[in-house]
Each structure stands twice: as C-alpha cells, then as structure tokens.
C-alpha cells in the first residue's frame, strides 16, 4: 500500500494498529522526495539521515507501549524555523551558513509529539514575497503548473504537502504566508489567533531566539485535511514556557457548533480596493452554496462588518511600518523626502505603504488605537455570526515573476493589472485584528488550478473555523492530488 497521501490521522491509526512502521513511512516519503523534488524544489534542506534515525526511535518507543500525538509521522518544517544542526538563512546570502544552536519552540513541540522531521521547505528572500524563490535555494514551482508559483512565504511547505512529501508541515503568516500557498496548492492551512502559538526560534538568522510578542505574525499548521490541522494545532498551541514558566497546554474553547445547519456565516466576495477574479469568486460561491445546502444561515451583507477600506489601510500601515523599522538611515531620509512630496489626495494602497515606511511612533500608536476599534467591531460581528467566508487572494496561483523590485510587479486579475502587493488586502482582513483564519480548498479554476477560501473566526475560538472547514470538506471536496 502507498501511504504518501494518507492523512496524518490515518497514519497514526495505521501505526497504532501495526499496519505500518515509521521507518516504512519515512523511507517512502524520502523516496518520493528524491524522485519528484528535483522538479518541484520544495525541500531546500533535507535531513534524511536524522529522519531515518528518528523513525527508528519512534518504532522502538511504540514497541515499548508509548503513544504520542504524532509518534512516527513524517513532517516538514519551513526553512525559517531554527533546527539545531541545520542552516537557517531565510534565503539571505549573507547568512547562508548560519547554524542555530537549538530548535525553535515549535520544532521542539513537533519532536516531543513524536514527529519525524524530513527537512526544511523553501521560502522567499527574507520571507518577504508572495512567491518562494531565493538565490541560495532557487525557485519552488507549483505542483499543479510548474510555470506558476506555489505562493509564499510558506510556499515550500504547501508544495511539499501537495506532492506527498510528509503528512504535515509548519509555517508562518503575516501577509497570508500560510493561507496563500494553501490556496495556490490546494491544501489546508490555519492562521491561529495572534499570540496563541509560541514563536520563539522562528527568527531571522543570527538574531537571538527570544520570546517576543509579534504584532501581526503567527506560526501555524499546514495539512491535507481540516482534521489534521486541528491535530497539529493542538501540538503547537500554547504560550512560551520562558514567559510563563508553565507547560504549554492551553484549553481552547470547543467549536460553537458541530452541525453545518447551526452555523451563521457571512460571505464576502467583493473588496472596495481590488476586484475579485472570476475563478476565486466562483470558489467563494461554491462554498456559499454548500453552506446553504447544508442548512447554514448565510448572509452576504452586514452593517456590523468593519469598513474594509480602513481595515486594508490600517493593515498596510502596521505591516509596512513594522517591516521597515530596521531600514538604514540613508534610505529613511530619502523616503522622508519622497513622502513629503506626495499629494494629500492620494489615498491609494501604494501611497499608504510608502507613507507607512516613515511612520513615527505616534503614527503607529494612532494606527494601533484604530485597530482596537476594529477588534471591537469584530467582537460585535461575532455575536451575530460564527464565521466569515472570503477570498485569500483575488486570483489562483500566478506565473513566476522575478522582477527584482517587487514594486514594479503587477498582478493580473481577469486581464487588468493592479499593483502586486494590493492582493494582500484579503489576507490582511484577518491579520490586522489578529483573528484565526482557516484556508480550505474550494474547487478548481477553469484552467484546473486550485482555488481556496478562508474561514475567519472569533479570537481564540480557532476550533470554530476549523470545525466549519471539516464540515465543508465533506460537501465541497478537499485536497486532490495534482494531475
């Protein structure tokens, strides 16, 4: 029997029943990677010798009667996580040989749960792109169409899952970096509530691995089914023991509902700042139809929804001001001069991003205060609804575009070009207020490319969108092997 596309849940059951060993699963995964990854280039740092040793230890542990949530399950890890003994360089040539001394918290949790780490998956330079290519490790391609990107920055992880290179992966998300690759590659991902899962050791190379409260970024699970996401999230969830001095267990409340007919869902497919391409709109509508068919209460509009234009503006302000905080002074001064010459009437997202590059602390505090108003509005919305369904990006996976300056790139939406980074507004809808969001497959485009949608849920009620994802999987169809 071939095991590569079995779910993690199925593999756990097979291992417990003695139907397969971890060594057999690991050898099969490695053989598949060695056969297929020359083309896909998802696994940028293989760790096969240690994986085989870990699998052997897992089988010995099971023979002794041990049982852990992921005991013997082959997994991959995004390159940006520190793993002792492997390089962590985020695709940045100056840090090509940086070797961390200890595992990231989440890598430690994977190993403690018994997982077998096959290796690390490819990322964009500095995790700063919607594609996954860099000078050190090259370009990862989309398993459905090698001329297109698998997305970024967790693109290697999504491509690996779509190709059967391990049952699970862990990634991170600040601008759709979990959700967009899942959407582009036809797999599942979950952006947890901000602060739910400790991030120590998911840190730029050579920076100290300290517990930090990231403003927008999260670490999270990727898988081929919704139930596998929950399995992995249960391993990942919980605060950093360095900050609390306690074990990492955290009790998430149960899903609000168990049956589809009990869910109240707001469906969005239009954004005031960027059009939704026909293929993605069709995916949203497939999910909406499945919800209606399952007896859920579905609405298309609500006065409780926070203003989408302001939400996108705040998201860009917080994202960009945070990411350029380490700019050298010369660049900062040049930017200040450029921003000073901008017309006050220009409120485009491109100009918003430019202004955010020179934000003062006062400017950031103002944006942060307005974010709290949005968070409160979302709390009000979630008294009337259980989840919001909306796009992740306006299009399916787009062709590789390695234009050196990303600001010169464009995204083609049904034949019309828009600024490349404007496509982040949908990802930012959940990121800016720190809400959980589950990326789920929603069929395919006319060209046969995967299309996904995101299910946004209430803060710290991650099990609610995850349960909805599981119920939808039965109606819309989940992961399919790339043809």
TrEMBL record:
Task: Write down the superkingdom of origin.
Answer: Bacteria
InterPro entries per record: Amidase_CS (IPR020556), Amidase_dom (IPR023631), AS_sf (IPR036928), FAAH2 (IPR052739)
Gene3D superfamilies, per database record: Amidase signature (AS) domain
Which SUPFAM superfamilies does its entry note?
A: Amidase signature (AS) enzymes (SSF75304)
Name all Amidase domain ranges: 24-464
> What NCBIfam families has UniProt attached to this entry?
PRK06170.1
Q: Which PANTHER family match?
A: FATTY-ACID AMIDE HYDROLASE (PTHR43372), FATTY-ACID AMIDE HYDROLASE 2 (PTHR43372:SF4)
What is the recorded name of this protein? Amidase, Asp-tRNAAsn/Glu-tRNAGln amidotransferase A subunit
| Taxonomic lineage of the native organism | Bacteria, Bacillati, Actinomycetota, Actinomycetes, Pseudonocardiales
